[in-house]
Give the backbone structure.
Amino acid sequence: MQRQAFSYIEAVISVVILSSAVISGLGVFGSYIKGINTTEEITRAQSLASELLAEIVSKPFEDTVASEGSFGLEAGETERIDFDDVDDYDTWIERPPQNLNGVIMDGSVGYTRSVRITNMDVATMSIVTTNGSSSVKKIEVSVYKNSKIRASLIAIRTRNGSTN
């Protein structure tokens, strides 16, 4: 006489095999979702960095009122809206990112933007230690999401106004 139904043991084994396959699939799906989130974070971070970098390079190379060779904030420049030349942005950090009027940008909660401006030697393109003494400035804008770097953009600004 032949059996035509699964035994209890066969059914249990089938459930175990099927469960293992489902669990493996969920792990892959979870990795996929995490990858999508990371890609979205990087895309948003690049956008935030690009916007701020464009703002900085649109400013004059140096303050027209301050003496040549000055570097950093001048008197009365306490808010970003007051920044009137490239090096005013040096060591600027904002979390979360805001527009020029101080309004938090959509989708920027959890992000941090930071800026570093350094003077460069024209001949060697190495960092000059004396602030304000160079005709070339390196502008670096970095964006972090939950303390992890997600984007970093660099531009070179020269005294005659060109950027690279």
Notes: Residues 8-158 form one domain.
